[in-house]
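Support request from a user on the community tier.

User writes: "When I paste my structure tokens into the form, the page sometimes reloads and wipes my input. The last time it worked, I copied everything first. Here is what I submitted, just in case something in the input itself triggers the reload:"
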């Protein structure tokens, strides 16, 4: 399979799975687009940010993200990113999530994906290559979901406020600040926020700050400066939150990304 190719160049194939590998430079942006096929995107290096109308997702290195067919999404690369993607015919794997999800990639799944991108696009379904592609269709169902999503509400004024926060995080703001800005009671706001996002305001705000911190961290800004800007009393508190959500402390995360 040629490297750095678009799936549309091979979408004519009757095979249920297409495997592609692509490399992207730091800060590369892929404009909003969608695919006819479902996609599992795996990043061997770098960090990938995916945005849709439903929310934002951060994909750390050595993880993957499930993107359903027809979902318009934009992609932003942080650091040099080397990807492997599987594109499935929509009726090939049923009962998969209707929204994007970041997933853990097992060592076995990783090995299968690395092997798949070297196979011909028109592989013989009855050959070793065909069996490998069938195995991928089974393994994808077993990948654990990671809580690395930042849902966006559909409610008009609440969605606008969330987008303003993402553009310019102000972590010291409280629920009462948002209630006053949106002319809502605290009770109405908390109920609406959880119904629309599935998260409490505190957890959503924490994850939004994490999303804001990642580009700065990868750009080389000191952890202390980022932590204080985001309202943490000290770098240790920020590091604890970072490790809990992403599985590694900031410096260790950067080593993985590179």
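"...and here is what came back when it finally went through:"
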């Amino acid at each position: 399979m040629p490297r750095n190719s678009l799936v549309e160049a091979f979408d004519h194939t009757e095979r249920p799975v297409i495997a592609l590998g692509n490399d992207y430079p730091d800060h590369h942006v892929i404009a909003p687009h969608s695919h006819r096929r479902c996609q599992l995107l795996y990043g061997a290096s770098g960090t990938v940010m995916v945005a849709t109308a439903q929310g934002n997702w951060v994909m750390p290195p050595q993880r993957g993200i499930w993107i359903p067919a027809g979902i318009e999404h934009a992609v932003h690369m942080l650091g040099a990113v080397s990807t492997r993607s599987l594109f499935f015919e929509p009726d090939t794997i049923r009962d998969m999530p209707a929204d994007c999800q970041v997933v853990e990639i097992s060592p076995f799944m990783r090995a299968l994906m690395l092997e798949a991108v070297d196979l011909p696009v028109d592989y013989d379904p009855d050959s070793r290559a065909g069996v490998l592609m069938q195995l991928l269709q089974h393994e994808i169902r077993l990948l654990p979901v990671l809580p690395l999503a930042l849902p966006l509400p559909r409610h008009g004024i609440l969605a606008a406020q969330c987008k303003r926060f993402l553009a310019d995080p102000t972590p010291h703001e409280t629920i009462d600040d948002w209630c006053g800005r949106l002319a809502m009671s605290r009770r109405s706001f908390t109920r609406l926020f959880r119904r629309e996002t599935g998260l409490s305001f505190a957890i959503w705000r924490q994850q939004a700050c994490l999303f804001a911190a990642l580009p700065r961290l990868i750009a080389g800004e000191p952890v202390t400066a980022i932590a204080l800007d985001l309202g943490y009393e000290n770098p240790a508190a920020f590091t604890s939150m970072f490790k809990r959500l992403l599985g590694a402390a900031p410096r260790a995360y950067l080593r993985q990304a590179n």
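Agent notes: The reload is a front-end session timeout and is unrelated to the input. The radius of gyration is 20 Å. DSSP finds nine helices and nine strands in the chain. Escalated to web team.
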